[in-house]
Recover the amino acids of this structure.
């Protein structure tokens, strides 16, 4: 977690209510501008960057920001206030994973996997959606949402292009993006909110898996089934179509694109090690201190050795707009914390907790999902965990309401989680038009079903 999480515990200066409301209006204005980014003809990074500048200026004017040296590793260093506001772990994961996947794709490994899966599906689009959907959930549970989306999104593009089914790519990528947040519920270490709330509630790793797995299974099946219907991804309807698909698949050669057998197997081994290392980062000596961002960047650096003379070509392909947007968004959210916007949200949610147990659980889950869709779910989860910890005899339902709400809120908007934003970025990479408002319109049916299922699940099984 970035330095800014440590600032939550620091004493804030007295912030007038009108200043907090001013920053609430700024947050709402940024969300509105992002919703109309296409009409504004502006990139997300530019919109978020301008709001970050505004927030920093106002934060300085009102004396909200903690200027001065900060302690890093026991040493005090001077940094601009906006540097520690950025969650560099997330930036490093996106940058490293993107580079690793891009270079590894040159080995032919992802094409090989895509064609093998395509052959296993017999060219049937629905079977392929099921295979990729399950792979997305598993990767999200053992890796992280962003890495899972980058890998599976790349495979989807390759497979559907081979099948001449590129018109279904939007449906595949959107469903996979939503499933990353479902998979993020599977284990205690699948997402940061899980770790924060699970540790505060004293939920053991195995207990967490047992209690969440049934929901993840049901939500995955429902998401794929709903996605199939809404995007028209069906089984091939007759024997002629199936035979044509089999002939098309039979013509695929998984060895296409493999220029060097040694480099292919090196890429396969490195990918396996990458997945294993990312999955076990939290328990590996030394690596657990350096974090998943270090792992992603290290594996990217190792793979780049093969193309050391033309490494700059890979740097040019990096999505700097995505990285710039995240950096600016973290700055905005950090200033919102100091303006007590998140505290205002937490106070509002605390009134829900006072309601009768079932109403409190349902309300807390729904409202925390809504707020998680427009703010960083990490500080929100931390704040709600502190509110619950301060109370006596907290029902188990409330802890799980925060866990489900913080994760599922990411499916309501493209800025609700890093993985859904990565999904939208991959969609744009394939020249498919999808605006902020368009994402909400398409994702809303899924998100509402996910949240409704979670409410029923929490009320019935906790």
């Amino acid at each position: 977690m970035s330095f800014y999480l440590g600032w939550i515990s620091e004493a804030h200066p007295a912030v007038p209510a009108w200043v907090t409301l001013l920053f609430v209006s700024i947050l709402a204005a940024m969300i509105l501008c992002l919703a109309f980014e296409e009409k504004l003809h502006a990139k997300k990074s530019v919109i978020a960057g301008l709001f970050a500048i505004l927030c920093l200026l106002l934060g300085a004017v009102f004396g909200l920001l903690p200027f001065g040296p900060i302690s890093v590793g026991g040493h005090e260093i001077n940094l601009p206030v906006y540097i520690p506001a950025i969650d560099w772990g997330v930036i490093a994961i996106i940058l490293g994973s993107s580079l690793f996947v891009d270079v590894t794709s040159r080995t032919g490994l992802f094409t090989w996997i895509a064609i093998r899966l395509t052959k296993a599906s017999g060219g049937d689009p629905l079977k392929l959606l099921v295979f990729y959907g399950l792979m997305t959930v598993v990767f999200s549970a053992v890796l992280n949402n962003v890495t899972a989306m980058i890998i599976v999104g790349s495979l989807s593009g390759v497979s559907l292009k081979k099948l001449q089914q590129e018109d279904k790519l939007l449906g595949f990528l959107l469903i996979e993006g939503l499933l990353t947040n479902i998979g993020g519920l599977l284990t205690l270490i699948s997402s940061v909110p899980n770790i924060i709330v699970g540790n505060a509630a004293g939920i053991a790793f195995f207990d967490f898996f047992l209690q969440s797995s049934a929901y993840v299974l049901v939500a995955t099946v429902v998401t794929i089934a709903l996605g199939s219907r809404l995007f028209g991804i069906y089984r091939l309807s007759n024997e002629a179509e199936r035979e044509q698909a089999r002939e098309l698949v039979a013509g695929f050669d998984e060895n296409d694109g493999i220029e060097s057998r040694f480099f292919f197997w090196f890429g396969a081994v490195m990918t396996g090690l990458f997945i294993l290392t990312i999955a076990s980062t939290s328990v590996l000596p030394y690596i657990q201190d350096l974090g998943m961002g270090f792992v992603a960047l290290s594996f990217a650096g190792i793979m780049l050795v093969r193309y050391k003379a033309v490494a700059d070509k890979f740097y040019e392909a990096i999505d700097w707009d995505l990285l710039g947007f995240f950096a600016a968004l973290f700055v905005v959210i950090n200033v919102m914390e100091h303006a007590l916007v998140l505290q205002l949200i937490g106070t509002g949610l605390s009134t829900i907790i006072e309601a009768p147990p079932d109403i409190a659980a349902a309300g807390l889950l729904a409202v925390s999902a809504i707020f998680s869709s427009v703010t960083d779910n990490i500080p929100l989860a931390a704040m709600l965990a502190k509110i619950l910890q301060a109370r006596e005899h907290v029902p188990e339902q409330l802890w799980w309401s925060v866990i489900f709400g913080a994760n599922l809120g990411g499916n309501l908007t493209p800025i609700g989680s890093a993985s859904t934003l990565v999904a939208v970025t991959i969609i744009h990479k394939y020249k498919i038009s999808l605006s902020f408002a368009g994402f909400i319109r398409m994702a809303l049916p899924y998100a509402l079903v996910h949240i409704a299922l979670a409410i029923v699940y929490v009320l019935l099984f906790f």
Summary: The two ends are 29 Å apart (CA to CA). Residues 69 and 75 are 9 Å apart (CA to CA).
